[in-house]
Backbone:
């Protein structure tokens, strides 16, 4: 994600100073954990339970395996090319086709918008209703107002820093640790609420409306949304000391820590709260807290949850608007999207465009559909990155770096494609939404090509 003025103030490439290397292993680990934690576990855990049944923990385990394999591919690439870049940079190095690079960048941008839109739905849902009981009928208005506020914050200019990420992560992680502590105590000692009867047997129950395999795959397609975010850390490569050595341990350990947290929460949630209740709420962890510790103020936990989803939404909208700005700056979409406000020095047209898309998505789709579309877009991106690893094996570098066994990117690509395909149980509507978003990008590409006749660009610069 670019700083508000980075692109605007760039000099010629030859005069560019390198980024300051400030990230050590501990700070990078915290960054990875903080980037993965967010909306899904706070708001979509119940929707995952609605797909799979009481065996809520299984989709999270499978999603972790897919994410772990893809993370290994990212590690090989970031070790070979320790630059701020990510998927567009790697795909361009592998295939050298500008249109594919653009589509990958646009897909990542769209995933940020759908993720932020799902966070807006979560913000206006049951957590907020716990604080303001009468907000229910006006939920859509609140969600739209939430996006407007995010746009204004984005327009004003938000200086994101690693230190702020630490603070935000502590709050989000604190809420999850409360769930784990309260839930574990309730399971061991029994809930203080006599109406709550923990039922470990639910952990092996599947949705009776489908086969166990289809229940798991369809739920995993949504649960994968919980594991995304790790790929953003590769953009910190230039600011990490000795990235080829530090990244593998920090990324894999961070991914494992968050997976362990999600797994414990999934077990506690399914044991304490009936599946039918989980499937009907977008505040599943609030139900867990009420069941495990009815004495704890539910309003306080709701505030923590709202903070978590707000942080997720803001980060994603910042990322999306800067990607649009970067693509315009590289003249691969119409130049109007690259306009910068004179006084605020923020890309106001890109912010307006991404915010309008988010408003449309929130108005038309439910939170579950938005989360699934996010995972669909990123699974396709991850599949291509896994293939890029294999293609780039021919590109030998002099320095030592992490190298994944060949079977890892192969299996990673296969699994990503499977969970992105209809075979996993995805409804057709998700493909229509994702296709519609990407079609907007194709139109922009075509219009720009007709006007300028330009089809090439600096992929390294775009990836930043």
Residues:
């Amino acid at each position: 994600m670019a700083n508000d003025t980075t692109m605007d103030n760039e000099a010629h490439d030859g005069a560019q100073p390198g980024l300051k290397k400030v990230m050590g292993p501990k700070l990078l680990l915290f960054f990875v954990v903080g980037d993965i934690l967010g909306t899904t576990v706070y708001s979509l855990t119940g929707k995952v339970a609605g797909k799979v049944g009481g065996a809520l923990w299984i989709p999270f385990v499978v999603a972790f395996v897919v994410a772990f394999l893809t993370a290994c591919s990212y590690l090989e690439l970031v070790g070979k090319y320790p630059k701020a870049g990510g998927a567009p940079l790697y795909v361009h190095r592998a295939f050298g086709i500008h249109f594919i690079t653009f589509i990958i960048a646009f897909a990542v941008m769209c995933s940020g918008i759908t993720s932020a839109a799902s966070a807006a739905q979560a913000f206006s849902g049951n957590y907020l209703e716990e604080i303001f009981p009468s907000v229910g009928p006006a939920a859509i208005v609140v969600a739209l107002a939430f996006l407007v506020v995010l746009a204004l914050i984005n327009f004003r200019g938000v200086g994101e820093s690693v230190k702020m990420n630490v603070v935000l992560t502590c709050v989000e992680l604190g809420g999850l640790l409360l769930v784990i502590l309260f839930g574990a105590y309730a399971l061991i000692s029994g809930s203080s609420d006599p109406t709550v009867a923990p039922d470990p047997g639910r952990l092996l129950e599947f949705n009776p409306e489908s086969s166990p395999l289809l229940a798991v795959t369809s739920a995993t397609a949504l649960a994968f949304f919980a594991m995304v975010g790790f790929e953003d850390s590769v953009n910190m490569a230039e600011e990490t000391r000795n990235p080829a050595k530090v990244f593998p341990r920090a990324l894999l350990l961070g991914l494992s820590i968050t997976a362990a947290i999600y797994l414990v929460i999934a077990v506690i949630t399914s044991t304490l709260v009936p599946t039918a209740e989980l499937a009907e709420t977008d505040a599943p962890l609030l139900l867990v807290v009420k069941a495990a510790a009815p004495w704890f103020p539910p309003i306080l936990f709701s505030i923590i949850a709202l903070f978590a989803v707000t942080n997720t939404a803001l980060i994603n909208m910042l990322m999306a608007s800067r990607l649009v700005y970067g693509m315009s700056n590289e003249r691969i979409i119409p130049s109007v999207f690259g306009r910068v406000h004179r006084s605020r020095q923020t890309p106001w047209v890109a912010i307006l465009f991404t915010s309008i898309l988010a408003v449309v998505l929130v108005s038309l789709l439910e939170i579950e559909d938005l989360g699934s579309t996010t995972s669909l877009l990123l699974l396709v991106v991850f599949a291509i990155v896994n293939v890029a690893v294999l293609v780039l094996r021919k590109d030998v570098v002099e320095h030592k770096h992490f190298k994944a066994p060949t079977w890892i990117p192969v299996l990673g690509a296969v699994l990503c494609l499977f969970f992105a395909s209809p075979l996993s149980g995805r409804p057709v509507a998700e493909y229509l939404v994702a296709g519609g978003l990407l079609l907007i990008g194709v139109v922009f590409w075509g219009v720009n090509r007709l006007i300028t006749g330009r089809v090439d660009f600096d992929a390294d610069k775009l990836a930043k």
Observations:
- Confidence is low (pLDDT under 50) at residues 1-20.
